[in-house]
Design a protein that fits this description.
Elements: H1 4-17, E1 23-28, H2 38-45, E2 50-56, E3 59-64, E4 68-73, E5 78-83, H3 105-108, E6 127-133, E7 138-143, E8 149-154, H4 162-166, H5 178-185, H6 193-198, H7 208-217, H8 231-250, E9 291-295, E10 298-302
Antiparallel strand pairs: 1-6, 2-3, 3-4, 4-8, 5-7, 6-7, 9-10
Helix pairs in contact: 1-8, 5-8, 7-8
The structure holds a DNA duplex.
Length: about 300
DNA sequence: CACTTGACCTGTCCGC
DNA sequence: TGCGGACAGGTCAAGT
């Protein structure tokens, strides 16, 4: 769910908050969520100062003056939430309620914070890593499903992470033109256009939400095979993809179920979505009923009238 | 080689 | 009410 616009929103937020902050303490206990050794943490993270925050594809990069970077992929349910100094926290460490114990964060930390905001309830059962800064502020990496990860990587080695070696170009880069988009798509001539949009090695940052939204905008059925798309269709798809990504960044991203930004707040793109998660509702363009099917192994939302399936 | 499916996880929802 | 099963969907590994 965090796709390009969601990670970009977090990047913009954290860029205003983290640079200059010095790491004081780090708490983590789930190796897949944070695989680094304590020795590395002590050497390269504790005492390090944040230089800048960047994004590449769906990955967030926090560059440190120790020549290491904190690299985070939120996958499906990851969150990065910053809690400023002065906010009343109920505990300083990870809750212990996840191994068999059915303790909820609420029970463990003494029943209900007056504030209903996520910030007031952190850490919670999904908290995997807490990075504490001098001055008392904290960055929480929460991840309910544990698919995401945060890791400490030498900054010069970041481009050599397998994912970065293979990942495609940024769709919103000024240098990325329709011609480039066409060439990239045509590397997978026999795949469905939706599968290709979701393939991070073709184009970076597109996930299920914006794939469906852009395909609706371009009136293309998601299972259309790339080599059956004409030049005009591909151009339209390029324009629509950029449009939905930019609009969503403006709206602070999409909150389908889990996503929140650096302040623990939801994004509002979903109220602008035309098809995603709108099965049973009417198509804003033609009034037909939006349907949900399965394409490329994913839930897929289309207007059966605007997006005709091409006959083989 | 090109392409598709399953595994990784947990929480929620639906039907019986 | 409780329980099993389907489902959510980003990426990598394994399968066709």
């Amino acid at each position: 769910m965090p796709e390009l616009p969601e990670v970009e929103t977090i990047k913009l937020g954290l860029s205003k908050l983290l640079p200059g902050k010095k790491v004081q303490k780090v708490t983590y206990d789930w190796p897949k969520s944070f695989p680094n050794s304590k020795a590395d943490v002590d050497k390269f993270l504790i005492g390090a100062k944040v230089l800048r925050v960047k994004r590449r594809a769906k990955v967030l990069l926090i560059e440190l003056d120790s020549k290491y970077s904190l690299v985070t992929h939120l996958k499906m349910t990851g969150q990065l939430v910053y809690v400023p100094y002065g906010h009343k926290l109920t505990a300083d460490s990870l809750p212990a309620g996840r191994q068999g114990s059915r303790l909820t964060a609420e029970k463990k930390f003494g029943g209900g914070h007056p504030s209903d905001s996520l910030i007031g309830r952190l850490p919670d059962r999904s908290t995997r890593v807490i990075t504490g800064f001098i001055g008392g502020s904290k960055l929480f990496f929460n991840d309910q499903r544990k698919f995401g990860w945060m890791r400490l990587v030498p900054t010069t080695e970041v481009p050599n992470i397998d994912f970065f070696k293979k990942v495609g170009p940024e769709p919103l880069a000024a240098s990325f033109k329709a011609r480039d988009f066409t060439k990239r798509l045509q590397k997978r001539p026999n795949s469905s256009v939706k599968a290709v949009l979701l393939d991070q090695t073709i184009i970076a940052g597109v996930g299920n939400i914006y794939a469906d939204e852009a395909l609706w905008g371009a009136k293309i059925h998601p299972s259309t095979v790339v080599n059956r798309l004409n030049g005009r269709s591909i151009y339209l798809l390029f324009e629509e993809l950029q449009y939905v990504l930019k609009l969503s960044i403006e709206k602070g991203g999409s909150t389908d179920r889990n996503y929140v930004n650096h302040e623990g707040k939801k994004g509002s793109y979903m109220s602008f979505a035309r098809v995603f998660r709108r099965e049973g509702q009417t198509c804003p363009r033609c009034g037909a009923t939006i349907i949900k099917t399965r394409v490329a192994g994913r839930g897929t939302h289309t207007c059966p009238n605007c997006q005709k399936e091409s006959k083989k």
